[in-house]
Amino acid sequence: MLSVSATRPLTFKISLPPPAFSLRTHMESPPRTHFTSASHSPQTNADIKDTSDGLAITLQEWQGWGAVSPLPAKVVEIVNDLKLLEKTTEVQMSFSGHRGKLEGDFGMQENKKHRATYQALGDSEKKLQFFSARQIACRLLGSRGYLCQKCWLPLEEDCMCSKVKPSSLWHGIRFWLYMHPKDFLRQNNTGKLLWQVFGVESATLCLYGIAEDEEIMWNACKTAGKDRVWCLYPNKNVATKSVQDALCQEISSDPECNTTMKNEYKPLNFILIDGTWSNSAAMFNRLKEKTKSVWGVEDLPCISLSAGVSTMHKLR
Protein backbone atom coordinates (compact mmCIF):
# COMPACT_ATOMS: atom_id res chain seq x y z
CA MET A 1 0.00 0.00 0.00
CA LEU A 2 1.12 3.53 -0.61
CA SER A 3 0.64 6.37 1.84
CA VAL A 4 1.71 10.00 1.77
CA SER A 5 1.83 12.48 4.60
CA ALA A 6 0.31 15.83 3.68
CA THR A 7 1.03 17.71 6.88
CA ARG A 8 4.63 18.39 5.83
CA PRO A 9 4.98 18.91 2.06
CA LEU A 10 8.26 17.02 1.62
CA THR A 11 7.55 14.11 3.97
CA PHE A 12 6.97 10.84 2.14
CA LYS A 13 6.27 7.46 3.62
CA ILE A 14 5.83 4.83 0.96
CA SER A 15 5.64 1.06 1.05
CA LEU A 16 4.73 -1.36 -1.72
CA PRO A 17 4.49 -5.16 -1.53
CA PRO A 18 6.14 -7.33 -4.21
CA PRO A 19 6.29 -9.16 -6.50
CA ALA A 20 4.52 -6.83 -8.96
CA PHE A 21 3.28 -3.30 -8.94
CA SER A 22 -0.15 -4.39 -7.88
CA LEU A 23 -1.42 -2.30 -5.01
CA ARG A 24 -3.27 -5.13 -3.34
CA THR A 25 -3.12 -7.29 -0.28
CA HIS A 26 -3.15 -11.08 -0.29
CA MET A 27 -6.45 -11.36 1.51
CA GLU A 28 -8.63 -14.14 0.18
CA SER A 29 -12.38 -13.74 0.03
CA PRO A 30 -14.88 -16.57 0.34
CA PRO A 31 -16.62 -17.73 -2.85
CA ARG A 32 -19.76 -15.79 -3.60
CA THR A 33 -23.06 -17.38 -4.34
CA HIS A 34 -24.57 -17.07 -7.78
CA PHE A 35 -26.19 -13.81 -8.80
CA THR A 36 -28.24 -13.36 -11.93
CA SER A 37 -29.24 -10.16 -13.63
CA ALA A 38 -32.74 -10.55 -12.28
CA SER A 39 -31.74 -11.27 -8.70
CA HIS A 40 -29.32 -8.43 -8.00
CA SER A 41 -30.30 -6.43 -4.97
CA PRO A 42 -29.67 -2.64 -5.08
CA GLN A 43 -26.58 -1.12 -3.48
CA THR A 44 -27.22 0.16 0.00
CA ASN A 45 -24.48 2.80 0.01
CA ALA A 46 -25.15 4.52 -3.31
CA ASP A 47 -28.07 5.65 -5.40
CA ILE A 48 -28.21 3.33 -8.39
CA LYS A 49 -31.12 4.04 -10.64
CA ASP A 50 -33.34 1.06 -11.41
CA THR A 51 -33.74 0.35 -15.11
CA SER A 52 -36.47 -1.56 -16.87
CA ASP A 53 -34.11 -4.28 -18.10
CA GLY A 54 -32.10 -4.50 -14.89
CA LEU A 55 -28.78 -4.39 -16.76
CA ALA A 56 -28.12 -0.85 -18.02
CA ILE A 57 -25.17 0.93 -16.38
CA THR A 58 -25.81 4.57 -15.46
CA LEU A 59 -23.19 7.31 -15.16
CA GLN A 60 -24.02 7.57 -11.47
CA GLU A 61 -23.33 3.88 -10.95
CA TRP A 62 -20.14 3.98 -13.04
CA GLN A 63 -18.63 6.87 -11.11
CA GLY A 64 -19.83 5.36 -7.85
CA TRP A 65 -17.16 2.64 -8.27
CA GLY A 66 -14.41 5.28 -8.25
CA ALA A 67 -14.24 6.36 -11.90
CA VAL A 68 -14.16 10.03 -12.94
CA SER A 69 -14.61 9.49 -16.68
CA PRO A 70 -17.84 9.56 -18.67
CA LEU A 71 -19.55 6.19 -19.05
CA PRO A 72 -17.27 4.29 -21.50
CA ALA A 73 -18.97 3.71 -24.83
CA LYS A 74 -17.38 0.27 -25.27
CA VAL A 75 -18.59 -0.87 -21.84
CA VAL A 76 -22.14 0.22 -22.69
CA GLU A 77 -21.85 -1.65 -26.00
CA ILE A 78 -20.76 -4.87 -24.25
CA VAL A 79 -23.59 -4.60 -21.69
CA ASN A 80 -26.10 -4.19 -24.53
CA ASP A 81 -24.62 -7.24 -26.31
CA LEU A 82 -24.98 -9.30 -23.12
CA LYS A 83 -28.56 -8.13 -22.73
CA LEU A 84 -29.35 -9.06 -26.33
CA LEU A 85 -27.72 -12.48 -25.98
CA GLU A 86 -29.75 -13.17 -22.84
CA LYS A 87 -32.92 -12.29 -24.71
CA THR A 88 -32.19 -14.26 -27.87
CA THR A 89 -30.97 -17.40 -26.07
CA GLU A 90 -33.61 -17.20 -23.34
CA VAL A 91 -30.87 -18.25 -20.91
CA GLN A 92 -30.48 -16.14 -17.81
CA MET A 93 -27.13 -14.54 -17.12
CA SER A 94 -25.36 -15.71 -13.96
CA PHE A 95 -22.00 -15.20 -12.31
CA SER A 96 -19.74 -17.32 -10.14
CA GLY A 97 -17.12 -16.35 -7.59
CA HIS A 98 -16.54 -12.71 -6.82
CA ARG A 99 -14.94 -11.46 -10.05
CA GLY A 100 -17.94 -11.16 -12.33
CA LYS A 101 -17.12 -14.33 -14.28
CA LEU A 102 -20.01 -15.61 -16.38
CA GLU A 103 -20.99 -19.23 -15.79
CA GLY A 104 -23.34 -21.95 -16.97
CA ASP A 105 -24.94 -22.25 -20.39
CA PHE A 106 -25.02 -18.50 -20.84
CA GLY A 107 -21.31 -18.27 -20.02
CA MET A 108 -20.46 -20.95 -22.59
CA GLN A 109 -22.45 -19.25 -25.35
CA GLU A 110 -21.10 -15.82 -24.50
CA ASN A 111 -17.55 -17.18 -24.45
CA LYS A 112 -17.87 -18.49 -28.01
CA LYS A 113 -19.45 -15.24 -29.16
CA HIS A 114 -16.87 -12.92 -27.62
CA ARG A 115 -13.93 -15.02 -28.86
CA ALA A 116 -15.28 -14.85 -32.41
CA THR A 117 -15.78 -11.10 -32.09
CA TYR A 118 -12.25 -10.63 -30.73
CA GLN A 119 -10.64 -12.65 -33.53
CA ALA A 120 -12.55 -10.68 -36.16
CA LEU A 121 -10.99 -7.44 -34.94
CA GLY A 122 -7.85 -6.95 -37.02
CA ASP A 123 -6.60 -3.85 -35.23
CA SER A 124 -4.66 -4.45 -31.99
CA GLU A 125 -6.03 -1.27 -30.42
CA LYS A 126 -9.61 -2.39 -31.08
CA LYS A 127 -8.80 -5.78 -29.58
CA LEU A 128 -7.44 -4.18 -26.42
CA GLN A 129 -10.47 -1.91 -26.05
CA PHE A 130 -12.83 -4.84 -26.57
CA PHE A 131 -10.96 -7.00 -24.04
CA SER A 132 -10.90 -4.25 -21.41
CA ALA A 133 -14.54 -3.27 -21.91
CA ARG A 134 -15.73 -6.88 -21.63
CA GLN A 135 -13.74 -7.50 -18.44
CA ILE A 136 -15.13 -4.36 -16.85
CA ALA A 137 -18.73 -4.87 -18.01
CA CYS A 138 -18.86 -8.38 -16.53
CA ARG A 139 -17.31 -7.24 -13.27
CA LEU A 140 -19.75 -4.37 -12.98
CA LEU A 141 -22.78 -6.59 -13.53
CA GLY A 142 -21.47 -9.42 -11.39
CA SER A 143 -20.65 -7.14 -8.44
CA ARG A 144 -23.99 -5.36 -8.21
CA GLY A 145 -25.66 -5.76 -4.87
CA TYR A 146 -22.73 -7.79 -3.59
CA LEU A 147 -19.72 -5.46 -3.35
CA CYS A 148 -19.63 -2.04 -1.71
CA GLN A 149 -18.99 0.59 -4.36
CA LYS A 150 -16.48 2.42 -2.19
CA CYS A 151 -14.23 -0.29 -0.73
CA TRP A 152 -15.03 -3.13 -3.19
CA LEU A 153 -15.66 -5.56 -0.33
CA PRO A 154 -18.84 -7.58 0.38
CA LEU A 155 -21.49 -5.19 1.65
CA GLU A 156 -22.98 -7.39 4.35
CA GLU A 157 -19.76 -8.98 5.61
CA ASP A 158 -16.59 -6.95 5.17
CA CYS A 159 -17.37 -3.33 4.22
CA MET A 160 -14.60 -1.18 5.74
CA CYS A 161 -15.77 2.29 4.69
CA SER A 162 -16.50 3.34 8.29
CA LYS A 163 -12.85 2.70 9.16
CA VAL A 164 -11.34 4.80 6.38
CA LYS A 165 -10.37 8.33 7.42
CA PRO A 166 -10.17 10.88 4.56
CA SER A 167 -7.03 12.99 4.39
CA SER A 168 -5.77 15.81 2.20
CA LEU A 169 -2.86 15.27 -0.19
CA TRP A 170 -0.24 17.94 -0.72
CA HIS A 171 -1.21 20.15 -3.66
CA GLY A 172 2.07 19.43 -5.47
CA ILE A 173 1.25 15.78 -6.13
CA ARG A 174 -1.37 13.89 -8.11
CA PHE A 175 -1.59 10.11 -8.29
CA TRP A 176 -2.91 8.18 -11.29
CA LEU A 177 -3.74 4.56 -10.52
CA TYR A 178 -3.26 2.91 -13.92
CA MET A 179 -5.21 -0.28 -13.34
CA HIS A 180 -5.48 -3.42 -15.42
CA PRO A 181 -9.12 -4.48 -16.05
CA LYS A 182 -8.52 -7.81 -14.31
CA ASP A 183 -7.77 -5.88 -11.10
CA PHE A 184 -10.92 -3.75 -11.33
CA LEU A 185 -13.31 -4.57 -8.45
CA ARG A 186 -10.96 -7.18 -7.02
CA GLN A 187 -11.73 -7.49 -3.33
CA ASN A 188 -8.05 -7.76 -2.38
CA ASN A 189 -7.00 -4.72 -4.39
CA THR A 190 -5.78 -1.90 -2.13
CA GLY A 191 -5.32 0.72 -4.82
CA LYS A 192 -8.89 1.95 -4.27
CA LEU A 193 -7.75 3.18 -0.83
CA LEU A 194 -5.89 6.00 -2.57
CA TRP A 195 -9.04 7.79 -3.74
CA GLN A 196 -10.97 6.74 -0.67
CA VAL A 197 -8.44 8.57 1.47
CA PHE A 198 -7.31 11.44 -0.79
CA GLY A 199 -10.34 11.85 -3.08
CA VAL A 200 -10.65 11.25 -6.83
CA GLU A 201 -9.17 14.64 -7.74
CA SER A 202 -5.88 13.81 -6.00
CA ALA A 203 -5.80 10.07 -6.69
CA THR A 204 -7.54 9.19 -9.94
CA LEU A 205 -8.43 5.81 -11.39
CA CYS A 206 -7.38 5.20 -15.00
CA LEU A 207 -8.33 1.84 -16.51
CA TYR A 208 -5.97 0.32 -19.05
CA GLY A 209 -7.55 0.10 -22.50
CA ILE A 210 -10.51 2.36 -21.67
CA ALA A 211 -10.23 5.32 -24.03
CA GLU A 212 -12.21 7.75 -21.88
CA ASP A 213 -10.01 7.10 -18.83
CA GLU A 214 -6.71 7.25 -20.69
CA GLU A 215 -7.70 10.47 -22.42
CA ILE A 216 -8.30 12.20 -19.09
CA MET A 217 -4.96 11.06 -17.69
CA TRP A 218 -2.95 12.04 -20.75
CA ASN A 219 -4.64 15.42 -21.09
CA ALA A 220 -3.56 16.17 -17.52
CA CYS A 221 -0.03 14.92 -18.23
CA LYS A 222 0.27 17.02 -21.38
CA THR A 223 -0.88 20.09 -19.47
CA ALA A 224 1.67 19.45 -16.72
CA GLY A 225 4.55 18.75 -19.13
CA LYS A 226 6.86 15.76 -19.55
CA ASP A 227 9.20 16.83 -16.73
CA ARG A 228 6.31 16.56 -14.26
CA VAL A 229 5.23 13.03 -15.17
CA TRP A 230 6.78 10.02 -13.42
CA CYS A 231 5.98 6.32 -13.52
CA LEU A 232 6.50 3.86 -10.68
CA TYR A 233 8.25 1.05 -12.56
CA PRO A 234 11.73 -0.55 -12.60
CA ASN A 235 12.77 0.45 -16.11
CA LYS A 236 15.93 -1.55 -16.86
CA ASN A 237 16.81 0.54 -19.90
CA VAL A 238 17.35 3.77 -17.97
CA ALA A 239 18.47 4.65 -14.48
CA THR A 240 15.46 4.89 -12.20
CA LYS A 241 15.29 7.62 -9.59
CA SER A 242 13.80 7.91 -6.14
CA VAL A 243 10.73 9.86 -5.05
CA GLN A 244 13.06 12.40 -3.45
CA ASP A 245 14.79 12.89 -6.81
CA ALA A 246 11.46 13.65 -8.47
CA LEU A 247 10.53 16.16 -5.78
CA CYS A 248 13.91 17.87 -5.51
CA GLN A 249 13.99 18.33 -9.28
CA GLU A 250 10.91 20.56 -9.15
CA ILE A 251 10.65 22.01 -5.68
CA SER A 252 12.74 24.86 -4.35
CA SER A 253 13.52 25.22 -0.66
CA ASP A 254 12.97 28.95 -0.99
CA PRO A 255 9.84 29.82 1.11
CA GLU A 256 8.87 32.60 -1.31
CA CYS A 257 8.99 30.17 -4.21
CA ASN A 258 6.82 27.68 -2.35
CA THR A 259 4.27 30.39 -1.61
CA THR A 260 4.05 31.24 -5.31
CA MET A 261 3.66 27.58 -6.26
CA LYS A 262 0.49 27.27 -4.20
CA ASN A 263 -1.28 29.39 -6.82
CA GLU A 264 0.66 28.60 -10.01
CA TYR A 265 2.50 25.32 -9.58
CA LYS A 266 1.51 22.37 -11.76
CA PRO A 267 1.52 19.16 -9.72
CA LEU A 268 3.86 16.25 -10.22
CA ASN A 269 1.91 13.39 -11.79
CA PHE A 270 2.83 9.94 -10.49
CA ILE A 271 1.49 7.05 -12.60
CA LEU A 272 1.20 3.93 -10.43
CA ILE A 273 0.85 0.73 -12.46
CA ASP A 274 -1.58 -1.67 -10.81
CA GLY A 275 -1.30 -5.13 -12.31
CA THR A 276 0.58 -8.43 -12.23
CA TRP A 277 4.16 -8.62 -13.47
CA SER A 278 3.13 -9.84 -16.93
CA ASN A 279 0.28 -7.35 -17.25
CA SER A 280 2.35 -4.44 -15.94
CA ALA A 281 4.95 -4.96 -18.70
CA ALA A 282 2.29 -4.48 -21.39
CA MET A 283 0.88 -1.49 -19.53
CA PHE A 284 4.31 0.15 -19.27
CA ASN A 285 4.92 -0.39 -23.00
CA ARG A 286 1.62 1.34 -23.73
CA LEU A 287 2.69 4.27 -21.58
CA LYS A 288 5.99 4.50 -23.47
CA GLU A 289 4.22 4.44 -26.84
CA LYS A 290 1.92 7.25 -25.74
CA THR A 291 4.88 9.21 -24.37
CA LYS A 292 6.54 9.00 -27.77
CA SER A 293 3.41 10.10 -29.62
CA VAL A 294 2.92 13.08 -27.27
CA TRP A 295 6.50 14.28 -26.70
CA GLY A 296 8.50 12.55 -29.43
CA VAL A 297 10.62 10.50 -27.02
CA GLU A 298 9.90 7.03 -25.74
CA ASP A 299 11.66 7.22 -22.38
CA LEU A 300 9.19 7.85 -19.58
CA PRO A 301 10.90 9.01 -16.36
CA CYS A 302 10.64 6.25 -13.77
CA ILE A 303 11.00 6.08 -10.03
CA SER A 304 11.63 3.04 -7.88
CA LEU A 305 11.10 2.24 -4.23
CA SER A 306 13.86 0.60 -2.25
CA ALA A 307 12.81 -1.96 0.34
CA GLY A 308 15.02 -4.46 2.14
CA VAL A 309 14.16 -8.08 2.76
CA SER A 310 13.29 -7.45 6.39
CA THR A 311 10.88 -4.69 5.40
CA MET A 312 9.12 -6.93 2.90
CA HIS A 313 8.74 -9.68 5.50
CA LYS A 314 7.05 -7.16 7.76
CA LEU A 315 4.70 -6.12 4.96
CA ARG A 316 3.76 -9.74 4.28
Automatic annotation (TrEMBL):
Q: Where is the DTW domain?
A: 144-315
BP term (GO), one: tRNA processing
The cross-references to Pfam families, in alphabetical order and at most eight, read:
DTW
Residues of the region (Disordered) are 26-47
The alphabetized UniProt keywords are: S-adenosyl-L-methionine, Transferase, tRNA processing
| Keyword Plastid in annotation | no
Swiss-Prot/TrEMBL catalytic activity: a uridine in tRNA + S-adenosyl-L-methionine = a 3-[(3S)-3-amino-3-carboxypropyl]uridine in tRNA + S-methyl-5'-thioadenosine + H(+)
Matches recorded under SMART domains: DTW (SM01144)
Q: Which GO terms describe its molecular function?
A: tRNA-uridine aminocarboxypropyltransferase activity
Per the record, where are the segments of Polar residues compositional bias?
34-46
Name the chain's protein.
Answer: tRNA-uridine aminocarboxypropyltransferase
What lineage does UniProt assign to this protein's organism?
Eukaryota, Viridiplantae, Streptophyta, Embryophyta, Tracheophyta
